Amino acid sequence: MSLLSVFKKERDSLIPRRKSHGAATGSSSGLLNNNVVRQLIIELKEPHRIWKPDEYVVGEAILVLKKDTTNLALRLRMVSEIRVKTSGSTTVKKSRGERLFERSTLLYGEDYSEDQDKDKGKITNGLTKGEHRFPFRMKVRSGRKVFSSLEFERGSIRHYLQCQVENMGPKQEEKPVSCCEQAFFVIVPVDVATLPKQKTRRVVLQSASTVRQVPKGLGDGSSSFLTRTTNKSSNSNSSSGSNSELNAVDKTVTISVNISHSGYSIGEIIPINVSVQHYKSFCHPAGLIVTLSRICRVGSGGKDEPMETFRKDICQSVSPLYVDPTTFHSNSTVYLKVPIDAFSTFTSLSKYFTFQYYVEVVVNLSQKNIVFTESNRAIGVPSDTALSSSEPGKTNIEGNINQIQRKFLNMVGNDASVADDNDIESNIFYRDMVNVQKLKRQNNVTGMSVETIIGTTRSQSKCQTIEVEQTAQVINELPESPLTPITPSAKSVINDWLMPAYADVNYPPVPQYTPNSEVHIIEDKKELEHSRLKQLESDPPTDY
């Protein structure tokens, strides 16, 4: 052995080993690497449940120690925080956020006080080696700063439980020995039944020559706004030559969009009624494109940096537009559906991010425009047969619309039948949708966007409650008969979707129950024979 190796060995034996005083980082798995704690985890009694405000989260904190330990505390926190990633001026995304609320409680031990300085070294508490379970029951807070859990690419609102082991002493909360977290989900109910009814929105399209002849006061009518086409679009309309005999004042197209409610809950179907008043006959297999889109705005955090805006089309419905050549009017109802995995409208913390939903209605008023999907499939090619049959006196409105709709569904690969009114969702698309932003750049394409609030529930209004009570009262007053159908009670009227399919079939009444003690069984053969003769003879014998 060389002198250098001997010197290194003696030097290493003289240098004391450093002890690790840093806090061990933990996770929901709970496996920690330190000299005291072997494992620390949080187990929820209902791990897959979604909690609401003012509900209790029940579970256990499990602590496994390697050896006997004294003077320690076990603290449990309930935390809600919002985080957002901002791009800023550089390509590196910065993360910022804040804690919305925090609640803390001690499952074991106590907080350090100044009076304990006199009794340094005194054993206050202790736990033996092995596994220890600490049950807890914490209430979810309710108030303005409580929001539903959500997560997307640029941010999140997260709720979690945090448990940490502390050595009792000064600043014991800031320097825990070990720590673990367990996330849970919270949903804040948003009732859309309290929102006011939606107003009818209108768009009026007029040619440039018409605008010059209309008086100034005529523009202030029921229209929400006035769209004036350019001279180029006016020349393109006049170049068609089909309506050259019409006056310039009559070249007006009015589009009305009516949505029954201002808000819809998750999973509900949204009916959109679109009415078009034209000045000539018109037909296009993809004339109405209705899209439910979500607009996300992410705040950058700086005063000079603008907010980032992202759009996502959730679902879409495409319908043909057919204007009656007699009345020059078209009335269609298109349906959308709020997906189950959508989250509610969020606008409370605009400095971080917001989510708003819009129903965008795009009307294609040009027979030359071809509608393409995102995969570059043409689904809106005008049909020469349909256009030729739109002459006055040679058209069947219902048959023409059904024919166009069937042809359109075959184009997009949907085998649903148009005559099936019960399957509304078959005409709603969630992928390979039409790029409406690109379509709106074409000529003679217009539309509007109507903001819609997305909530979680729709409570029953007072009018609906009165109707249900009146229906139950009428049902109870019906006369009884042996073939009276099954009559639902007031509770079954409310939940009529729970009734079976055969509930409206007439059934005879159920036989009454007879106890066995009241059933007389005749075992004597003479009695049986006497009863048989009594039924056959007109004057049965009195003796037997």
TrEMBL record:
Give the record's GO biological process terms.
cellular response to amino acid stimulus; ubiquitin-dependent endocytosis
Query: Any idea which GO molecular function terms this record carries?
Result: protein-macromolecule adaptor activity; ubiquitin protein ligase binding
Domain of life the protein comes from? Eukaryota
Q: Residue ranges under compositional bias (Polar residues)?
A: 221-230
In this chain the Arrestin C-terminal-like domain maps to: 249-383
Stored Pfam families:
Arrestin_C, Arrestin_N
Family membership noted in the UniProt record: Belongs to the arrestin family. PalF/RIM8 subfamily.
Q: Which PANTHER family match?
A: ARRESTIN DOMAIN CONTAINING PROTEIN, PH-RESPONSE REGULATOR PROTEIN PALF_RIM8
* Protein name per Swiss-Prot or TrEMBL: pH-response regulator protein palF/RIM8
Which organism's genome codes for this protein?
Answer: Torulaspora delbrueckii
